[in-house]
Amino acid sequence: MKNVVVLPVMVLFLLMACHPIKKPTVTIMTEKGDIVVELYPNQAPYTVYNFLKYVDEDRYRGATFYRTVTLDNQPDDSIKIEVIQGGLYDDNHPRALSPVNHETTKKTGIKHLDGTISMARNAPGTATSEFFICLGDQPELDYGGKRNPDGQGFAAFGRVIKGMDVVRAIHRSPANGQALTPRIKILAMKGDREQLLKVFENWAPEEK
Questions:
Q1: Are 153 and 117 in contact (CB under 8 A)?
Q2: pLDDT at residue 206 in the model
Q3: Cα–Cα nearest to 85, from 148, 161, 190, 175
Q4: What single-letter DSSP state applies at residue 31?
Q5: What is the four-CA torsion angle of 134, 137, 140, 145, rounded to 10 degrees?
Q6: Residues 86, 186: contact at Cβ < 8 Å?
């Protein structure tokens, strides 16, 4: 079974190496302003493809930023991080897609630096719609980091190129513990249609 799983992944990455795709951008429009993220499909194809499916199919309709993790609101964690988290919120949301393959930072080379966008998860391979954005460098979220006991880290797949002031404003917003009160509405998520089509036309990970 292991060979059956590994072969499609190898084929996908060979295709990506031969036919690199221009980095698409997505604008996350919030009630506090816009955040523009640049995505890295050549390094994290499964994760980027998954995220763009949500965007292109309007699956993030009604999504919010609902969590802020600051140095002051994680008293039970010995390894502290700073992020904001958003998505559909409900683990069993009807617009959620199947979980995506876990692409570690060891595989992709995309580190959790200031402004990095990455997938929230429970066990490896359980990420669906929920994502977070780093404030400051967060090496404990990389492969081998200690924030998650399994040491697999989280699947980073892009970086904010405009709107870090909005990210910081959300991070500083009122919260009850880590829960933003109220949640910050995501009004829309827009990608360049031509860029998205090139991604979808060039490769579809679940079909390789």
A1: no
A2: 52
A3: 175
A4: T
A5: 110
A6: yes
Locate the DSSP E strands across 31-154. Answer: 33-39, 64-69, 83-87, 116-119, 131-134
How confident is the model at residue 91, as a pLDDT? 81
**Residues 136-170, buried b or exposed e (16+ Cβ, 10 A)?**
eebebbbbebebbeeebbbbbbbbbeebbebbeeb
Mean pLDDT by 10 residues, the chain (208 residues): 39 51 91 97 92 94 98 94 97 92 97 98 96 98 96 98 98 98 97 72 55
Quote the number of domains for the chain.
1
Find tokens 């700073």 and name the residue: 82
CA distance 107 to 156: 11
Task: Report the CATH number that the domain containing residue 160 is assigned in CATH.
Answer: 2.40.100.10
* Residues spanned by the domain of 145: 2-207
Q: b/e map of 33-58 (b: 16 or more CB within 10 Å)? A: eebbbebbbbbbbbbbbbbbbbbbee
H helix or E strand, kind and range, residue 162:
strand 155-162
Report residue 143 as tokens: 């492969």
Backbone angles phi, psi at 155, to 5 degrees: -95, 90
State how beta strands 33-39 and 25-30 pair.
antiparallel
Pick from 188, 189, 177: nearest CA to 68: 177
Measured between alpha carbons, how far is 184 from 112 in angstroms, rounded to an integer? Answer: 23
Pair 116, 83: CB distance under 8 Å: no
